Please model this.
Amino acid sequence: MLLRSIFLLFSGFLGWYFLPGTDSGLGFSLLGLFIGLLAGAMVLSIEYYLKEVSSHMIFGGIIGLALGLGVTGLFGWVISPLFSHNLDSLLPWRLMFMLTLGYLGLVTGQKLAKELAVGKADTKLSDSSSASDKILDTSVIIDGRIADLCETGFLEGTFILPQFILQELQHIADSSDSMKRARGRRGLDILHRIQKMSDIDVRVVDQDFPQIRDVDSKIVALAKKRNAKLITNDLNLNKVAELQGVRVLNINQLCNALKPVVLPGEMLRVFILKEGKEAGQGVAYLDDGTMIVVDEARRYIGKNMDVVVTSVLQTTAGRMIFTRLKEEPEREEVHLPR
Model:
């Protein structure tokens, strides 16, 4: 501030010195002082404006202005023979060309510099991004299985966590609904757990897409821009992302792929837990949660029974195994002597 005040006073002194007063009074000297102070204030205003402008914009504007003035000189040289009889009439045309082309050159230079800077930033972003980067969806964070999967070592590398996902989790954690509040807090706890793992690098990015309102659409746009994979268990988001060329890692699909293969005719030992939808049916579950429908097992609810697999049905929600009770002769083990 002190330096600017000294500069302003010095500008006023120069104006007073180069425009001295007349013998009749100090009017002209005061005018020079005012002009000097005004020029100094304009310089300080320009300096304040340049603080808000990046260096590449200033450099591009200077180059554009120089080119505009160069073209002005070229036009003046070309049209000067037309005004050889009266060179004074050429001055207005030169001033007009200088103002017009100089201003256009300044604006064009700044625009080109801005476009080059944006293109360079996008190139750096694409270079720094890797195809191994993974973006976490809100649903898969709240689900929690992603943390167990990371602990096994099957997932590693960089996890991209957008700021708008954190905001959505915080909004859910602050909900008045106790169920939503518990889910939101669980998601935040899962993130803290993943962040402490040594093989996982969690990066919170501030990239946002203000023109897009839907969070799922923002996630897909970010994955496309960063050339990253999307981790989710949302079936609809999975389909939308695949349609837009984004590679998806679906936790539900992984769990279904890891379930043990059961073939028709294979025998299983299950616990009949409850009654099925159809008459006489019983329902049991494997350790991984796969539903087993047992025909004519209603009377055996609460007991362990041997069943034989008849068919397997794969649905979007998971896999269902249809079985029947093992026949009595099949249950008896008969040891025949050799």
Notes: The chain has three domains: 2-127, 134-256, 261-331. The CA atoms of residues 260 and 288 lie 9 Å apart. The longest strand covers residues 304-315. The chain is about 55% helix and 15% strand.
